[in-house]
Amino acid sequence: MDGYGRTRLPWPYSYTPREVFPNGVTVGPIDPPIRTNCNLVMLELTDEDLFRLTSALQAGADLIYPDDWQTLMDRWSYAQQLANTGMYVNCEGDQILSICDIVADCISDPNSPAYAAVANLITDITGDTINNVVPLPSENNDLDCVWGASFGAYELVLDTWGEVQAIIDAATEFAEAVGLFKALFGPLSPLQTAWIEALIDAGPAAVDAYLNAQSTQDSWACELFNCIVDAGTPYQITNDCIDTAFAALNLPPPFDQFGIGQVLGFASDYTTIKSFWQRLSDDQCNNDWTGLCATCGTIDSITDWSDPRIVSFSQPVTIFGSGDVALEWFNNGIAPLTITFDAPYCFGDFDFELLRGAASSVPSVLRFSVSGTFVSSSAGGFGNGDITGSLSNAIGNTLTIDVQTPAQYLGVVRLSFGNDPTNRLDIAPLV
Q: Is the pLDDT of residue 6 over 60?
């Protein structure tokens, strides 16, 4: 007899959920969970319990859900394959997602209990609050490295396409191709099945040429790069940004007809892409993105050093207002002043009033670099004097000012916008 007092069915229909969970499943003495149309449910099961639960599902799924039981069982089977990998299939069945990403999002949400616990731990260890703990500078935050990694990660897109193309070439009919796709990538949604059918009908030759074109790689990399940069520092690759990059592959006709971006997206391992991107960001840095991914928008000049677009300064500074609107720091002849902005900008013309100590008897030479790349230098100012020049629309999120002054004249440097309406630092957002 089974757990309901009925005659036991033959194997594999021998078990019911009551026998798998004889005491039921309870949430515990907490508020009921908030359920949506898509919920992630995690169970810790022994091999025996997993076998019993699978048998119970097989015994009734086709009777209760005759139209879609096979899809449900496919997803259940695939979920078992992903056990202990930290991955799961989303509700639509078209992506493999990371449980670690969910945990990371939870920890980074200031409103979550996990965030509060981590904040308390940091305070206990460092004696500082979480808002005052600044992450160490990392090369991975450099825009050139973000671009190099985004461009290089396209290699994995072509690898996935190679697997897709091999299936299409090997299959003698559509049904066989679908079976091969399911065996390699897991269950397919009806929409994904339709994409694959359209792809087979169109033939892989045109798609192969399109995906291997330099312009396609540039477009995919720019979408990924722009999405990562738009999210702000520290620059990190996310599933949403990978989705955005794959969606870009659908844009030009006729590739929008069979959704090659979605086909490659659900066939790709996002965790592998992210780890590969992270490795590339350490040593594949270049500034090709400035010509491929960014154009300068309308100039919106800075005339106040307290402008909200300025995030931080690399050394202690004093900001004056009340008509002076000056930035003052001590020039120690070693460390230049780096100003970090909230996003990459195009840096154009500048016009400052430069003030140095009265004892200065030689002009100052100021060297300007944008995101670590030298752009221009300008000389001027003994005591007071204008210093002007252009940064030639260089693109970046940091502006470094290095005052080249002989050692005997080291001291306070002040750059002021003053009351002159022509004094400014021209910047423009990227579009």
A: no
